[in-house]
Structure prediction request, 390 residues.
Amino acid sequence: MNDLWWLISSFFLLSLVFWQRNRLRKLAREQWRVTSEMQALDEQLHERSNRLDALFSTVNEAIIRLNKDAEVLTMNEQARRLFRLPRSLDMPQPMTVFYRKPKWNKAMRKALMQMPEPCEIPDIYVGDFVLAVRLAPLGNGEALLLCLDISRQRELETQRDQLMRDLMHDLKTPLTSILGYARSIQSFGDNKALRDEAAQTIAQESKRLNQLIESILTLKQLGEGVVPEDVHCDAVAVVHELEQLLRPVAKKNGVRFEANVDDDCCVFPMDGADLYRLLTNVMENGIRHTPQGGRVSLCMQCVDGQPVLRVIDSGPGIDPKHLPRVTERFYRIEDDRGRQSSDTGGGHGMGLSIVQETVNRYGGRLVLSNLPQGGLEVRVQFSVRPVRAA
Prediction:
């Protein structure tokens, strides 16, 4: 009986051992399968991340990949340059390492928690750059932060707002003067001296308004116009007309006016009205800013077979820090030498921008430079050969 019991117990124990061994083997196979799947998934995620990073590296805008804890996983080269980060910096890093604005980081964390629901995030200001940020979910607890450079857009908005304020002020001033003198004539029309003064002032202020409106319309037309092929004009005739307009102004200001057109540039590769407008803006600027006893000269010639015009004055020149920007629309300066980048349109920064856009329209090149002996040189060169006179 004991032997039978021992035999049954042994059989039961052996069965239990075999069952447990098979169970352990099954668990081991299941664990190996799960581990393999996890490794494959990790490899897929890693490969996906690498593909995303490779794709982001080709984008010109700054791109940052984040997790839900607002840690930066990777960023493209543009983002590294904007935030001035060394390549040796290890990832991940908290976003606060790159942008230390508590309110902004709080808004960022809130947006990450609310994904995929949209949430507004403030702009980023880094040095001279303004970045508009957009957040998009990538899945697996990650998000994409796209930083769009809107610096130029913001600058243009600021210039536009400043322009509107300037226009409102400069329109109001002459209109107020015209209205005031008109009422004076109405009340004291029998006074000849007052009538003459009022008529002169009304004419001057009306001319100022007309110049302002004409400058604005000119910029609009230059942006829309198309230059016809083989256009040219008689440069001598244009310069002669310009002399009749500006020589009395130069004489009144005590400035010597000189103009010279070489024989090989008599037929100039521009429309006559455009050339006249270009020269008028440049020459009037030169006369306005040249002190008494100074000189403003115009020279039109061919250099290496290409037409070139140069306007040189003996004024104070322009501060070098402003030279790269004075041809931008509505850019206005008043430097320590007292010279403005203003124009014939009443100081709105449109004169040199009209010159620049006229030159661009004909595929030319405009260069402004201060002369060593003092004064400013405005040089315009075209890449086409002048038309020979018949």
Notes: The chain has eight helices and 13 strands. The radius of gyration is 37 Å. Helices lie at 2-56, 77-83, 102-114, 151-188, 192-224, 235-252, 272-289, 351-361. The chain has three domains: 57-149, 153-224, 233-382.
